[in-house]
Design goal:
Elements lengths: L2 E12 L5 H5 L2 E11 L2 H6 L8 H14 L5 H15 L5 E7 L13 E7 L3
Antiparallel strand pairs: 1-2, 2-3, 3-4
Amino acid sequence: MTDTIFVTGLSIHARHGVMDHETEVGQRFVIDLELYTDLSEPSRTDRLADTVSYAEVVATTTAAFKNTNYKLLEGAAGAVADAILSHFPRIRAVKITVHKPHAPIAAIFDDVGIMLTRSRHP
């Protein structure tokens, strides 16, 4: 059985990108997380100690995403996946979507980004 904890719309200002102005000024990124785990125990006990703290997930995600300036979203998302799997042993797999709504692309678009899925045992 796999249950899901999710966080959507986490806005973080960071300095990722290939272009100089992206690393100098930075921009807003939006992160969505899906954390796959077994929630049967906390659904019975109703104890925070038996599950994953959403606040800790957000803090870990923010630190990993902002820690290093990456040229590619793939690198930034990979750092987040590694941090989550490292810090939260209850998480079996994580799906991360990183939106870059203000990417310097000469086109009119709503959103651009990547989705990355990593698991503890591929």
